[in-house]
Design a protein that fits this description.
The complex is a heterodimer of chains A (399) and B (265). Chain A has 399 residues and is α+β, with helices and mostly antiparallel strands. Chain A has 11 helices and 15 strands. Chain A has a 5-stranded antiparallel sheet with strand order 2-1-5-4-3. Chain A has a 5-stranded antiparallel sheet with strand order 6-15-14-11-12. The longest helix of chain A is centred in the middle third of the chain and has 33 residues. Chain B contains 9 helices and 7 strands. Classes of the chains: A alpha+beta (399), B alpha/beta (265).
């Protein structure tokens, strides 16, 4: 059996396959899309039967009488004048324009329109040829997608807002004044700050002094946030009774174990009191937390305190206490591992060396200046997007 | 931010000629002037730019707050004038850009000697005796029409477009690019445009002003052009034979001739 293309007889005779569709008039009139020709100003000059059926009109209604945009609702008409017509004039064609065709009975048919300009030639004016394909289901689906997308954007904004409110509850809105000390705290969430983290700090007045806490719950998100809130307020409730710092941390450890959470945390707690000369003196205890760093003229600069054990894991964690005296000009920095474990160029960690250098570089600045300089440096080291939350609390004894 | 890059400013023509700055309206970009601006290059220093969000502008320059009203766009225009040190310039603004020019002229009149307002409307929505041509519901319908026509804008394409506004090899992908913008920005510009009311600003214009009014313009009907002419002291009104809202594209010769006659007067 001959294949159809082998029986073709050349340019002059229609091939048998072409002969199946040799009624060009019918091919035009009953094409599976509306076919419309207009002058450049939109005046209809010809429309096929499919288009007439789409808009429920006769040739006499349209030809020479109506401009194409008059068949559109007002919004689409503005779109025609501000986008469709200019695009046609500039690039000679437009594609996939979504509009609705108005019918005399008030109903509308959503269509997708393509159009090309046939330039003027031989005394004939330029013509716009438009095809209109009904797109009822497609447009409905697109509108649903758009609605869902807007809803998703709203939920995302709401979730971000909730995270920020929750996050803000992990640090005091303002630090209280402590006699003889200049204090400042900075909190910087990981990444772009959309997710609630697990770092916290606090500074509050107790019966006979002040309590300071700073810690880091493992993990992020809502579950970590529950533990972070529990930790900050348990430390505050225990600290306010002027309990010894190791005892305060031990109470938090018991609370965590009773909570049966699988989240553990590290924390620093210090009781701040003043000696007879009015100089601040800290009693410090650490639950698996990086020791605070002291920069001082009287002592070698470096970490102070015994790291101790993590909280929320052992029934009887090792928690020791260290006495820390501060002299005029001394700076004591509490921080979370978002500082030292920040990853920079070549996967290098920011580390304790850089931390110490950063502190020494701003020696003499006030507590806020020290805290902000350090955090800025760590964020810059990670190209602006820190991988972990960062919390720092700086105590400085004015000269 | 670099104003020249932000607004994709292009300068051509006679460096010692009177500066002439063209501003496009809502919808497409500075290409709207491609058949008109070249006619003035011999005598003028011609400045073209894109509003932020359109054409080759830097989307980072878009601010939801600043660009929520036409004043923000007028500030952009004045920043371009300052950067280029334009004084006593001819401003040609199409559609909503006509009002952006009016606002800029009121703010810094020394920058503009003449204003050419092509299809201006100080308010699109009818208000008591004032006929703007539209109802509030019509404008909501336009916003819906914009939602349905993202003109090739999808999240996946956006970085390509933003990074390479002029890459010809993207040819096929860039169909409709003259009118392409981030749908959220288009929505906001549409609101700033069609919900604006600058009627009270018109009497404060001091520059010599030409109002170019098309026939059968749905967006800025003839009575609106006549209103603008009545309210701007000493302005001239030219009723054009061109139909529709974009004589700069549909009848560039007539548009050029009308502007030339005004500049000679």
């Amino acid at each position: 059996m001959a294949r159809p293309d082998e029986t073709a007889t050349g340019m002059c005779e229609p091939s048998p396959t072409e002969a199946v569709e040799d009624d060009l008039g019918d091919l035009y009139e009953h094409a599976p899309f509306g076919y419309l020709s207009t002058l450049m100003d939109g005046t209809v000059v010809r429309a096929n039967a499919t288009f007439l059926a789409m808009v429920g009109r006769t040739p006499a209604d349209l030809v020479g009488r109506v401009r194409f945009p008059a068949l559109l609702p007002v919004g689409d008409r503005i779109f025609y004048d501000t986008h469709f017509a200019p695009l046609l004039a500039m690039q000679g064609e437009v594609r996939e324009i979504a509009v609705e065709l108005k019918r005399p009975d008030g109903t509308r048919l959503p269509v997708l329109v393509n159009a090309v300009v046939k330039p003027s030639a031989g005394g004939r004016p330029a013509v716009i040829r438009l095809s209109a394909v009904a797109a009822v289901d497609r447009r409905r689906y697109e509108r649903e997608l758009l609605r869902e997308r807007r809803r998703a954007e709203r939920s995302e904004a709401e979730a971000r807002h909730l995270a920020q409110i929750l996050q803000a509850s992990f640090v005091p809105a303002a630090l209280p004044g402590v006699p003889g000390l200049d204090v400042a705290g900075v909190y910087r969430p990981a990444g772009s700050g959309d997710e609630v983290g697990g770092d916290f700090y606090d500074l509050f007045e107790t019966g006979h002094g002040w309590g300071l806490s700073l810690g880091d719950v493992c993990g992020k998100g809502a579950r970590a946030a529950v533990v972070t809130g529990l930790a900050r307020y348990t430390l505050r409730a225990a600290g306010i009774q002027d309990a010894r710092p190791a005892e305060v941390l031990s109470l938090l450890n018991q609370a965590l174990l009773r909570e049966r959470t699988d989240r553990f945390l590290t924390a620093a707690y210090a009781r701040i009191q003043h000696d007879d000369a009015g100089r601040p003196r800290l009693t410090l205890s650490l639950g698996g937390h990086p020791p605070p760093v002291r920069v001082s003229r009287e002592h070698p600069s470096g970490p102070v305190g015994d790291p101790g054990d993590l909280l929320g894991v052992f029934g009887d964690p090792k928690l020791r206490e260290t006495e820390v005296g501060l002299s005029p000009g001394d700076v004591l920095l509490f921080y979370t591992d978002g500082i030292t474990e920040g990853r920079g160029p070549g996967d290098a960690m920011f580390g304790e060396e850089r931390l110490l250098r950063s502190l020494e570089a701003v020696h003499g600045a006030d507590a806020r200046g020290v805290a902000e300089h350090l955090v800025d440096e760590v964020v810059a080291f990670q190209s602006g997007l820190p991988i972990d939350d960062i919390a720092v609390l700086v105590l400085r004894v004015p000269d | 931010m670099d104003v020249i890059a932000r607004n994709n400013v292009h300068i051509s023509g006679n460096p010692s000629g009177t500066p002439m700055i063209f501003a496009h309206g809502f919808g497409c970009d500075q290409n709207m002037w491609r058949f008109v601006a070249p006619a003035f290059e011999e005598d003028h220093r011609v400045v073209l730019f894109d509003h932020v969000g359109y054409g080759g502008s830097d989307l980072a320059g878009f601010s939801a707050e600043r660009h929520s009203t036409l004043d923000g766009y007028a500030r952009d225009l004045l920043e371009i004038c300052r950067e280029l040190d334009l004084e006593r310039a001819v401003f040609v603004g199409h559609s909503v850009a006509a009002m952006i020019g009016v606002l800029a002229e009121i703010e810094e009149p020394e920058r503009f000697e003449r204003l050419v307002l092509v299809g201006p409307s100080p308010r699109y929505i009818d208000d008591a005796d004032y006929v703007g041509g539209f109802s509030r519901a019509d404008i909501d319908e336009l916003l819906e029409s914009l939602d349905g026509n993202y003109l090739g804008w999808s999240g996946a394409m956006a970085p390509v477009i933003m990074g390479n506004p002029d890459r010809p090899e993207l040819g096929e992908e860039l169909t409709n690019s003259f009118c392409r913008t981030d749908p959220a920005i288009a929505r906001q510009f549409a609101r700033a445009t069609f919900l604006s009311d600058n009627r009270a600003d018109l009497p404060r214009v001091r520059a010599r002003t030409l109002v170019l009014q098309c026939s059968a313009d749905v967006i800025a009907p003839t009575q609106v052009g006549e209103y603008v002419h009545r309210m701007i002291p000493g302005s001239e009104l030219v009723l054009m034979e061109a139909t529709g809202h974009c004589p700069n594209l549909s009848a560039p010769e007539e548009t050029v001739a009308a502007i030339r006659a005004f500049l000679r007067s």
